[in-house]
Amino acid sequence: MAEPSEKAKMLDGELYNAFDPELLAERERAAALCARYNGGGDRTAILRELLGAIGEGSAILPAFACDYGYNIRIGRGGFINYNCVFLDCAAIEIGDRVLIAPAVQLYTATHPLDAETRRDNLEYALPIRIGDDVWIGGGAIVLPDVEIGDRAVIGAGAVVTRDVAPDTVVAGNPARVIRRLPSG
Prior knowledge:
- The protein is of the alpha/beta class and 184 residues long.
- The chain is 21% helix and 30% strand.
- The protein has 4 helices and 20 strands.
- The chain has helices at residues 6-11, 21-39, 43-50, 115-119; strands at 16-17, 53-54, 59-60, 64-66, 72-74, 79-80, 84-87, 92-94, 99-100, 105-107, 109-110, 122-125, 128-130, 135-136, 141-142, 146-148, 153-154, 159-160, 168-171, 176-180.
- A hairpin with a 4-residue loop joins strand 19 and strand 20 (176-180).
- Helix 2 packs antiparallel against helix 3.
- The protein is globular, with a radius of gyration of 17 Å.
């Protein structure tokens, strides 16, 4: 049986070479689409070409940057403010009516702790899932393999390193629970 492609390894959460020609070409495609999007024009059409899915009534303000685009799925009625960066080497799933403030960063890409493995240009990626009716404050960073439950609130500048339960407010670095909200 043939060795899986680097893209297949990436999508399966395995170590992969990010400098593989296929992946380089796909990142270049996404960068060109992001440049077109950020420059103006028919932004709706560009988002439909770039992203895996975008729901009705959702909006992204420029400047927006991502690695591949096709791993990003955004639900209905969402709003993503200026200067967000989504490293989508794995799935980024954003629910309905999610509010994302300026300069939020969602990172699915991560690297091995072992320096020798990193020297071989190997990395891996783990998904991020964001439930419905979530609000993520300005400058927050969400790290790989994090799930944010419905109706959660992420404070500005928070670094989210682990799952956030529904109806919870978290803040800080690393983000910690500061309040429980009434269930939605």
